[in-house]
Every structure is written in structure tokens, then in C-alpha cells.
């Protein structure tokens, strides 16, 4: 049986860094939060935030360090300690590639 990480579409890279996250609720309220990157792949990023973001929410991401800026969809959000771990899948053609 294959290990769980071998079943994923893209390899996850543990990369410490800060990401700016912005989103709107269905009611129209706007939120922004700094996030800590836990890992990143070609197709998405796993973040740690102080605030929960509902699954399915469209978020805007910006991180100059990783050369990403664009939209993503929240795929999961779980409480962890005093914060939340949020997994997002890049959208709109946004992809991350390792620097040479």
C-alpha cells in the first residue's frame, strides 16, 4: 500500500514563511490575516491562521517570498491549538514552482 504522501497530486515542501490572506464572507464582511506557511506544493498551500475560514471560501493570497499572488479555494479548516490549519487549493492558473 502506498504511503499517504505518495497518493497526493503534488509533493509538499515544508517552507517557513508569511502569507497575506484576504477574503469576504457571504454576508460581505471583509477579513485579512497574516498566516504562517506550513507547507506548499505546486497546487496549494497549508497555512496556520488565528481565524477560521469556511470551506469553499475564495481567498486572495500574497507572498513575495514564494512569488505567489492570486486566488485559491479553502479545501479544509481545522482547529489546532489557539488557531486554525487551513488548506487551500490554488485557482485561476496560480501555481508555485521551486526556485532554481
Automatic annotation (TrEMBL):
Q: Which SUPFAM superfamilies match?
A: PilZ domain-like
State a single Pfam family of this protein: PilZ
Q: Name all PilZ domain ranges.
A: 7-90
Q: Which GO terms describe its molecular function?
A: cyclic-di-GMP binding
Top-rank taxon of the source lineage equals Bacteria
Stated name of the protein: PilZ domain-containing protein
